[in-house]
């Protein structure tokens, strides 16, 4: 891995019976990635209750780095990966309206890592809860470009 944004990270270990990434032809889909670091959940809770918007943005940065690391299973240097879609789930209190601001933190990371290949379609969705009390979960869909 050559990008400093991902230096020192490893592919997240699944928390159950699934793969961190699945390839079908030239399409890659990651499992939902939460802000786990070395198996420990960072930022558990709901945004607007136990956590602030800044906490959620930090959590999104961690979760998307985990998702990018999952993509390295199929393209170690991420040189051929072009993101198609990112879905960002945010566990927040009723009335929270800054889902896009949380997702923006993740988008910033993918553009720093992949450049223009990281600019993708995106959804930011509010939910009542997520696995492990995570405040954010992120899924990526990508294309492995042929050279």
Automatic annotation (TrEMBL):
Signal peptide start and end residues: none
Matches recorded under Pfam families: YjgF_endoribonc
CDD domains: YjgF_YER057c_UK114_like_1
InterPro entries the record matches: Endoribo_LPSP/chorism_mut-like, RutC-like_sf
Residue ranges of every copy of the Endoribonuclease L-PSP/chorismate mutase-like domain listed in the record: 12-125
Protein name as catalogued: Translation initiation inhibitor, yjgF family
UniProt superkingdom: Bacteria
UniProt organism field: Saccharomonospora azurea NA-128
